[in-house]
Design goal:
Shape: globular
Distance between the termini: 57 Å
Helix content: 40-55%
């Protein structure tokens, strides 16, 4: 019988992309992980990884073993939850993927209603690119995804888009930077340094088109996958940055920045993506209902 500890080490290396990253995640030395994978390869009689330069790539057998490992460990999570329910623990495990383009404050506001239900809910939040999260949703390793757009048409993933709502966009900056720019909004952006979300975010295209429409060509100082990091740079005065208007006042207070101006022409949208066409999970229903009520007034 396959040693599932060896299989788990292989699975983590395949998911993390390297033995070093897997060792950091598992808090085990790289030598231990490498040795355990070698034992698994001996047992199977096949090589699971091939070395390409400094990188490890799955062999054909490795890809096959990974698909089985995904199912095995997904079933393990379901087993754990079923045993918890059978033992009288009413705590529901809700596994949520959050696209890395979603602002952290928005994610919290959307998920908070699930933590106020009569039956307790334990959230397991995972942040990643939407494409990677959709892969995990397809393997039933996630119950839902919060994203800034629907499932991309080029991805053959079975899932259903549930639109939560949308809001306009606000431009923020540190007080010392606002003192340096000239003119009213939006003309003041012409002379201002600018921080923008990376192309991982659907809002980037809208923002660049809006700037072009208004004949604004600010000096872009940086692009950020992580919008929390972008806010931190903005707080330090590195440039003007944008946030969903729904959380503009909250961001202003938290980061000690000010709102330069807002527009309804750039719209941030929010979706829940799930495997069910009709949502029945009480926690997910609470999230979607509260979000639609909140975003409706933005």
């Amino acid at each position: 019988m396959i040693n599932f500890k060896h299989l788990h080490y292989f699975w983590m290396v395949a998911k993390q992309g390297s033995i070093t990253k897997a060792s950091e995640h598992l808090h085990i030395t790289p030598q231990t992980i490498s040795g355990q994978i070698s034992l698994l390869e001996e047992q199977l009689g096949k090589t699971l990884f091939s070395k390409v330069g400094r990188n490890l790539e799955l062999t054909n057998t490795g890809h096959m073993v990974l698909s089985y490992a995904d199912e095995i460990f997904s079933l393990g999570n379901e087993l754990e939850q079923s045993v918890r329910i059978a033992s009288g623990d009413r705590t529901q495990l809700l596994r949520i993927g959050i696209a890395d383009s979603i602002p952290k404050s928005i994610a919290y506001r959307l998920l908070a209603p699930a933590m106020s239900l009569e039956d307790p809910v334990r959230l397991v939040c995972k942040e990643n690119s939407l494409e990677d999260l959709l892969g995990e949703l397809a393997l039933h390793k996630l119950d839902m995804i919060i994203a800034d757009g629907p499932i991309p048409p080029h991805l053959a993933v079975r899932g259903f888009n549930h639109f939560l709502g949308e809001c306009g966009t606000s431009f923020m900056a540190a007080p010392n930077l606002i003192e340096q720019v000239e003119g009213g909004f939006p003309a003041c952006l012409r002379s201002a340094p600018f921080l923008i979300p990376s192309d991982q975010s659907l809002i980037q295209i809208q923002l660049l088109q809006w700037l072009e429409k208004h004949h604004l060509h600010p000096k872009i100082m940086g692009e950020f996958d992580d919008r929390a990091l972008m806010k931190t740079f903005g707080q330090a005065g590195a440039g003007v940055f944008i946030v969903p208007s729904a959380i503009a006042n909250e961001v202003a207070k938290q980061f000690k920045v000010e709102i330069i101006g807002s527009t309804e022409e750039i719209r941030e949208q929010f979706f829940v993506i799930a495997t069910e066409q009709r949502l029945s999970n009480p926690a997910i229903v609470a999230i979607t209902d509260a979000a639609k009520g909140w975003l409706k007034h933005q």
